[in-house]
Amino acid sequence: MKKFRDIIIVGFAMFSIYFGAGNLIFPPYIGMTSGSGWLISFLGFIFADVGIILLSIIAVAKSGSFQAVVGRAGKKFGISLEFIMMLCLGPILVIPRTAATTFEMSIAPVFNLNPIIFSILFFALTLILTIRPTKVIDIIGKFLTPVLLITLAFLIIKGIISPIGALNNNIDSSSLFVTGLTQGYQTMDALGTGGITMLIMASFLSKGYKDKTETINLTIKSATVAGIGLILVYGGLAYLGATVSSIYDKNISQTALLINIIKNLLGNNGILILGVIVAFACLTTAIGLTSVTSKYFEDISNKKFKYEHIVIFICTFSAIVANFGVDKIISISVPILTVIYPISIALVLMNCFRKVFTKNTIYKGVAYATLLTSLLTVIDSSVVTISFIHKLPFAALGFDWVLPAIIGGIIGYFVNSNDSDVCLTETE
């Protein structure tokens, strides 16, 4: 019974860490643009979002660390990639965005509060709930997630019982799955999986589970609980979007669509419900990522920097960056994430088939080819046009790196090297 309870609590915590405000906005828009074919788009979204998350967790848990996954492309390369990734998840981009999003969607529409004061209050609360690393998962899983889930369930059930409108049947269904697939990929939810997985495994260790194989199995089971929760919530939100597919068109912004759906279902008081959902979604994500990144920087510094001190620094720095606003933070984050996310996904997917891809030179070929393509994509979008990037297969879907990655892997296969071991760390 204890084991089952721990799996549920940790699974709830994982759900909340992954379910940020962006995850609240994507599914309704997918449903609205798909109409009666919303289920097809939804399946594509789940495959690229929840599917990649679960594969990443399994790969990291079995390998022993995220570094054991990305390090196959070279030790220095893996360390650099993980370091940049943690900086992005930490004080530079993602954590500050949680406070900025909460303010713009939950506080500003209702209260006349100074954003600087709010950011201080938000990260003071994050600091209090994060300062003890062994308690982070329990705080999120036992207390915060249930509030978030109950509020979401109330909204979704209301929309199912009293649909806002009829589902639009006049939408081209030929590309719905691909549309959902693209949107799911663009959430970039799997970016922090390495640190989150290690946090979850550490949580199980603190609960008395000392056997490594058992800890891995419990982590995967908790991830499954989180995945089921995400699928149910995403499905409900996508259906809500589908019920307004005859009312709005694709030109409406994702945020405006969500607000209008809630107003239609719950009236003007629904904004308060939205505020609660966004606040808890962002707070749980901020707490989880602050703990993950703090533990990471403590470990790589060989504990020269204490976890508690790093938490204080991240919360303080994030409180400052949060005042730049959501749009500014996103404009900074997109180019960086566009470069590092495809590399991470490619290496994680390969690691899931590590008995097939045994040569490290294959990983190196894939990683460097993906890195080059991603860099050229960013340059093309912000500096100067690089026409051939647009001619690569799947470029319109955001997957222009796939063919270069395959070519890089093939080249790597034929490169002679003594570096041809199986995974750095592996638990079968």
Write a structural description.
By secondary structure, this protein is mostly helical. The chain has helices at residues 2-18, 21-34, 38-48, 50-63, 66-70, 75-92, 94-107, 115-130, 136-161, 176-186, 193-206, 212-242, 254-266, 270-300, 307-321, 326-351, 360-382, 387-390, 402-413. Mean pLDDT is 91; it is low at 420-428. It starts with a helix and ends in a 15-residue tail after the last helix. The chain has one domain (2-327): Hydantoin permease, CATH 1.10.4160.10. It has 19 helices and no strands. One of its GO terms (molecular function) is L-valine transmembrane transporter activity. Component of the transport system for branched-chain amino acids. It comes from Clostridium senegalense.
Low-confidence stretches: 420-428
Strand fraction equals: under 5%
Give the SSE order as H and E letters. HHHHHHHHHHHHHHHHHHH
Q: What is the alpha-carbon Rg in Å?
A: 21 Å
Query: What is the straight-line distance between the termini?
Result: 26 Å
Outline type: globular
Helix/strand/pairing class, anyone?
A: mainly alpha
CATH architecture: Orthogonal Bundle
Summarize this structure as a short list of keywords or feature phrases.
mainly alpha, disordered C terminus, globular, Hydantoin permease, 19 helices, about 75% helix, about 425 residues
Topology readout:
Blueprint lengths: L1 H17 L2 H14 L3 H11 L1 H14 L2 H5 L4 H18 L1 H14 L7 H16 L5 H26 L14 H11 L6 H14 L5 H31 L11 H13 L3 H31 L6 H15 L4 H26 L8 H23 L4 H4 L11 H12 L15
Helix pairs in contact: 1-9, 1-11, 1-12, 1-14, 2-3, 2-12, 2-13, 3-4, 3-10, 3-12, 4-11, 4-12, 4-16, 6-14, 6-16, 7-14, 7-15, 7-16, 8-14, 8-15, 9-12, 9-14, 11-12, 11-14, 13-14, 14-15, 16-17, 17-19
